[in-house]
Design a protein that fits this description.
Elements (H helix, E strand, L loop, with lengths): L2 H5 L10 E5 L4 H12 L3 E6 L8 H5 L4 E4 L5 H11 L3 E4 L6 H6 L1 H19 L7 E5 L25 H19 L13 E7 L2 E2 L9 H10 L3 E4 L5 E3 L1 E2 L1 H15 L7 E5 L6 E3 H11 L4 E4 L16 H7 L7 H16 L6 H14 L7
């Protein structure tokens, strides 16, 4: 796909824009900066060193300017953002793992809560900033194991430190939006619009983080080993990484246009048929990668939600966002990415993105027009 065609996506809004992505060395962040760079944005990343080896961001070899910086060091963070003076900030930097939050609750809360505060505080002093998109998680909701999806106005909460930290990040974002970036005062006392994005369980190529189901599957399949399922009956809203990223980019697009009605919280979850159990996901992957073997973990495990689903009606109706790939397409593209990588073939990131865009165009999704 020609670069010029990709630059026209999202109304061509990102071409030439200065965009900061915190957490760019992580899984979702690396895919986001790749997409932004392909659209002609001037991309800057702020994050810790890549958390794994191998890692997607290093494999991509992008041109972006990367600042290896802890967002908990607020003065240094503020200085970097002041130096860049961006048009838009996507905040993804976080401790992203539920199980690790049990071992490191203080570090998780510091990064996910106070780190978000540090980003928001630094953004208050930027001259050219027009938009902020804070990325949290579907686990920000007070999960009551309902059989229906959570909507944006549901209560925040969390039984584990990770989920609690994401609920806090959402509450803080709403507080800063009301106190300092109030949409009713946009264009009068300030020129910044802020939104938050909440996504389900994201999978795709390039993720090697510990305690992630796809990472565990890939390790097992590539070494002829066995994956032990800790929560085989747990149901999650699985989606390819490009799905929520298209939602985040739609938010950035509308906020940069100054459309204050898009300020607020937004869910980006898959269609209902993507809400399947861990066991069903592994079986689907094993059908595509026969060397994947699995069994069931017998040891007691820390609490994780058994059922979790998002209601994305608001994004579909008002933002005109829509998922593109089916559950089978999501798993197929994920497994093929890793199969190609371990076979020493060309990285499939570009092919995944281009195929995703083509499929979105076939469905006449607004960001492709």
């Amino acid at each position: 796909m020609e670069t010029m065609e990709i630059k026209k996506l999202f109304g061509g809004i990102y071409a030439g824009k200065k965009v900061v992505v915190t957490g760019h060395t992580g899984f979702k962040g690396s895919w986001l900066v790749y997409w932004l760079e392909r659209m002609g944005a001037e991309v800057y990343g702020i994050a810790l060193d890549p958390p794994t080896e191998p890692n997607h961001i290093s494999l991509l070899g992008l041109k972006l300017r990367s600042f290896i910086q802890d967002i908990n060091e607020k003065e240094k963070l503020a200085g970097i953002l002041k130096e860049i003076n961006p048009d838009l900030v996507f905040h993804l930097a976080a401790q992203p793992l539920v199980r690790l939050s049990y071992d490191q609750p203080t570090e998780t809360l510091m990064t996910n809560v106070m780190g978000t505060v540090h980003v928001l505080e630094a953004c208050r002093n930027l001259d050219k900033l027009k938009a902020i998109v804070i990325i949290t998680s579907d686990k920000c909701y007070d999960n009551k194991e309902w059989l229906w999806g959570y909507r944006e106005d549901e209560a925040m909460g969390g039984k584990d430190p990770y989920s609690a930290s994401k609920a806090c990040a959402e509450i803080l974002t709403a507080s800063y939006r009301h106190s300092f970036f109030n949409p009713d005062k946009y264009g009068d006392t300030h020129q910044v619009l802020i939104a938050s994005g909440r996504a389900g369980n994201v999978i795709g190529g390039g993720d090697w983080a510990m305690d992630r189901i796809v990472t565990d599957m890939v390790k097992a399949a590539s070494t002829e080993g066995t994956i032990f399922l800790r929560y085989p009956k747990a149901t999650r809203p699985w989606q390819h990484v490009l799905e929520p990223l298209s939602g985040y980019l739609m938010l950035g697009w509308r906020l940069l246009e100054g459309k204050k009605e898009f300020s607020g919280g937004w869910n980006f979850g898959p269609d209902a048929d993507h809400n399947v159990s861990v066991l069903e996901l592994v079986r689907e992957a094993a059908a595509a990668w026969p060397s994947l073997h699995f069994d069931f973990e017998k040891k007691p495990q820390p609490h994780e939600a058994g059922f979790l689903m998002l209601d994305s009606t608001k994004a579909k109706k008002l933002l005109e966002w829509a998922p593109v790939w089916s559950f089978s397409d999501t798993v197929k593209n994920t497994i093929q990415w890793y199969q190609a990588f371990y076979a020493g073939e060309k990285l499939q990131t570009a092919a995944n993105l281009e195929n995703y865009i083509l499929d979105a165009q076939k469905n006449s999704i607004p960001w492709t027009r």
